[in-house]
């Protein structure tokens, strides 16, 4: 048979780096946060013609923290791009931040050619194996043909419960290969529904309990179970408390809100926990500092989450409701059939006690400013949907206890890795995603200086952002711990730059608070003007000893 005039069936060849970018576009990626090197130049060229917005940062940590926070706020994996060797090793902390914090993130790193390299071991570190313990998946791309499947798998693994970090390494020579493979389109995923029998068992135990409490953890914040949990509380009228990373899932202005477990035990809230005979633990994540310690004393715990419980010495639930979290709460509410009858009088007493203590110091005019006043003034200037992003320090406990969150993911704090240096970049990501909301980074002077160079990135991106620096010229959290164990005050002091001039050198605006009454007007002025502002706030941490050590040690729970 003649073949004259027939066109051969040839597939179109695509450069591997172009195919990688096409696969990212197919995943719906809008931003890539990057500090590239020469090993990334092919990807950089492919991105130049892409619809993906390329965000250049001043340090790899800035790129990683922004990508992780994108995952936290959207549920869609954030993407960061760095080079080999020191570029990749600088991402170890953001990778752990995402992994422990349950934030979906895909990391793309470069590498020297793997087929024919003439540079020996220059800058060569086994990045794939280095990151394996702190990622859900860590793989090298060894052929362009594997890119579509590996990218699809990377996003599936990063985003499915429990979310976390994934790393793909693309060597220089593989990036230049030609391939005829096509991208794989993502599809919607659904989680299984909890078994009917276990839902029946859980509802029976709740109905039989005399003093049940609801605990809301980080997992409920991740997957936006806001409506299901609000309906559950409203219908059953069971009082609730939350972990630090569970703040805001249910409006903390609720009459049923008992407080945030900023400490593992010994707080006023723990009086209610000790009295409860049942805790319904929704979205529990063992990476958070325990909100309470289980003991073998007859107290029952129902674990409700996407996955079964990870049992340890202080957490061993008796019933596990495993499946789609929001759907589990809807089905459980239906089975309970309405308001649960129990004696809530003691919980009301605890509620009043917690509220009273939170109000103490909120109007204190001392200067430098005490934490209670700073938290109260922050709450006054931030609206219902506005976002605060906390770095790590002793102030995180004050904000967790005293700052009420009204909506999910409006208080961004890290109670998993608890790394310093992430607050500024996290706030930048929030400001980039939500330009119509007020966004405030709240950093200690120590944590702020760890990634302060990202101020240039924030200014370059034309973000509207207020950065509050709590200035005590020391590592305040460690000083508090030092005091708590009766060690001498030693070894934790340092000197800071002039933060006003520092801000101005980056093209931002700087403000120094010289009187307590000026804090709110300065915040309001900064938000109204727009752009990037630093507010230098002298802080008096003497209340740490008085409130978080002395008062708590003297309290008595009437059980």
Written description of the protein model:
The chain is of the alpha/beta class. The protein folds into three domains: 14-179, Thiamin diphosphate (ThDP)-binding fold, Pyr/PP domains (Rossmann fold), CATH 3.40.50.970; 196-353, TPP-binding domain (Rossmann fold, 3-Layer(aba) Sandwich), CATH 3.40.50.1220; 361-550, Rossmann fold (3-Layer(aba) Sandwich). It is 38% helix and 17% strand. The chain has 23 helices and 20 strands. A six-stranded parallel beta sheet has the order 3-2-4-5-7-6, with helices on both faces. It has a six-stranded parallel beta sheet with strand order 11-10-9-12-13-14, with helices on both faces. β6 (137-140), α7 (147-159) and β7 form a beta-alpha-beta unit. The longest helix is centred in the N-terminal third of the chain and has 15 residues, at 60-74. 52% of the residues are buried. Mean pLDDT is 93; it is low at 1-8.
